[in-house]
Amino acid sequence: MKTRFLTVLFTCLFCYAWAQKNNAQNNLKGIVVDSIAGKPLAYATVVLLNSKTKKPVKNFLTKDDGSFEFYYTDSLDYLLAFAFTGYDNKTIPIVRGQSADIGRVTMKLAGKQMNEVTVVAIKPLIKRELDGITYDVSADPETPVLDALDMVRKVPLLSVDASDNIKLKGKSNYKILINGKESALMAKNPSDVLRSMPATNIERIEVITTPPAKYDAEGLAGIINIITKKKMDEGYNIGLNGRLNTVWGPGINLNGTFKQGKFGFSGFAGYNVRHQQTTDIGLEQNFFYDNSSLSQQGTNTVSAHNTYGNAELSYEFDSLNLLTGSLEFYAGNFGQNNDQISNSYSSNEALTQSYRLLTGTGNDFGGLDASMNYQMGFRKDKNRLLTVSYKYSYSPNTQHINNTITDTFNFNLPNYKQYNNAGNREHTIQVDYVHPFNKVNLEAGAKTILRNNFSNFETSDYNEITKDYEVNPSQTNDFNYDQDIYSIYNSYSAKWDQWNAKAGLRLEHTTVRADFISTSSNVNQDYNNFIPSLSIQRNFKSSNISLGYTDRISRPGIYQLNPFVDLSNPNFVNTGNPNLQPEVNHSFELNYSNYAKNSLTVGISYSFSNNSIQTVTHLQSVSAGGLTDTIPVTTYENLGTNKNLGLNLNFNITSIKNLSISLNTQLSHLWLKGSYNGQFYKNDGNTGNAFLNAGYKFGKGFRIGFDAGYFSGDVNLQGKSNAYIYNSYVFSKTFLNKRLTLSAVMNNPYGQFYTFRTTTMTPDFYQLSYNQIPYRSFALRFNVKIGKLNSDIKRNQRGISNDDKKAGKSSAGSP
């Protein structure tokens, strides 16, 4: 009943909004031409302005033949303004109620510019670049009322699944950057950071699917680059954002900029708290070899809080020398308490083993990035640039786990504690050189990354005799993992009237030295990777076609290499594989984009890998709880082939006054093959997602928005996950000349929880696991702006972006 009522309500509101646009009574039409040649000017900007305030009322473009036609209300006197690149602006007065064919509107080549009218051009939301797409967040009308994670859902090629995991073309293997640099903000859980960050902090989001040679070769699917706002004049600017959410709790964000002479500063900082919430978790297993089964059911209670910040500074010595620096930090705590009962049954359903496991987890995590960049120009050609950069990164992570076992039957494992002090330290030195020639731009550079990962993991068992916890040597791990990467690159880009092209080659040499003390094993790896990239684009009047090819590599992370056997859940074992090799992926894509009036982007992609890194599970005899059980063991392997054929479509309607509609879809077919533990596995299936966004602006600053999405779930070598649907309603109102925005949000109002299921099928067993995810939430948000920003804070054009690592699983979980 609730679903029907809300659907009918929203439909009525939209019908009312649609009716408003049909109140127009007067018609104006004409054709824009060159004053000398008389040729039509296609896609010239036409703006209807209030004659008194000079504020735009309606924006649109002329057609291919230079013609235009529109309807408007007769309540005011207007000015009709025309703008076209290389021509003087022109205005024509429109008397109240005038309805006529204006005829030929002649425009002169640029001379003295007119100052009495400021023409506001229509900003497209999406732009097809040579190597990817760009989503202009600042041009999205929902920016003041959405957080950054909600905005990511709207970006073509990106999707967000039920657990708030971000996907690029349906894949989780990518790199995410802030302002072209790997960020401490994204080190642990990018979804957590983006959920707490308002979209107003972001200028645009770049999705780079064919990364050029200047980027590190890591990230099979590509790169997500989030560009934050840094607009300013002399003086300062401050923005304040806040929220109250029934699930994700309260949050506050402060951003500001300052510029005085040669010195500039921009930054933001925020804090948010997640309310404690309890959900159901469970698992069912059936073993085929003896028809036995295992059932685990329980609850999971989580809470979290975190703080984050970013600051960028610049100092211009003169027009040729620029010094910039940045500092980012992220710190927080994630608490989790599990209470679950485990029961094992024989083939005749007799209880063979039972226990209750209470697990309390505290996780303190953080990240710090500090970088310095010096950029030097050349007097003969200021477009020639030499940049020298240094960056230091540190990401500590401390985890405490208390496990208490009660209500046992045929199970003798003692209570135990686990402690893990882990982290990452990193030094990076980089040199970049840019030299433009006539129509060709040369880029070259070298880079060194010195990376150290460490982890001290300790398990202590409770001794009933001494009444104290004692270290268990077999469950204690101490390792150091050093990965050094040395790379050079060279690329060329060229622009002609109708063609753009970019080609490059990157060489990376990697050395890995790791000592795993607890298992008396080590890793010694040295390998080279040649990474080519090629992008070609053909430009038309209002559209383009692009073709791209690149190789990408996925180096195994420390979580995948570490051979330590984790028995924190006695019925499940997780371990790494120190013999993993880097995965090499070959990717092709063909895209078409049209931005004549609305925007349309269609793309086809194909990628394949012959040594894909896969998560795999097999049965193994393990001693636990005083008994020897046959339980699943999960690890990582380089297995067979991974092929992916994809189709993506994005369509935006912005030509209807006050109404905006966008559709973002992606469909892939996945083929997986591989042999593991003496068994051959083969799996394939369709994966995809679809996201719809609609919004309408009413008068006096009111706006209503609707979002809906579908995510099909994942296909893995041994199983799959289920589909997911979400929807959201946003109501907002602006005040104080758009300096204050208040909004109310309803997310998934039809149900409190969503159940996410994952299945695993092997010749030996079948497994179904599930966990509830908070689904319904309500929120109030505000956005305050103080000041005026028109120019950019000076920023170096090259800098460090360590996008080479494969993201490991966040121990903090998904807050």
What does this structure look like?
The protein has 815 residues and is mainly beta. The chain is 4% helix and 63% strand. It is globular and about 95 Å long. The chain starts with a helix and ends in a 23-residue tail after the last strand.
Write the SSE topology.
Elements: H1 2-20, E1 26-34, E2 45-50, E3 56-61, E4 67-72, E5 78-83, E6 90-94, E7 100-107, E8 126-128, E9 132-135, H2 148-153, E10 158-160, E11 166-168, E12 175-178, E13 181-182, H3 190-196, E14 202-208, E15 223-228, E16 231-232, E17 235-245, E18 249-260, E19 263-287, E20 293-316, E21 321-345, E22 351-377, E23 385-409, E24 416-436, E25 440-463, E26 468-471, E27 477-495, E28 499-516, E29 521-539, E30 543-554, H4 558-561, E31 566-569, E32 572-574, E33 583-594, E34 599-609, E35 613-624, E36 627-638, E37 641-653, E38 659-676, E39 679-697, E40 702-711, E41 715-716, E42 719-721, E43 724-735, E44 740-747, E45 753-761, E46 765-774, E47 777-786, E48 791-792
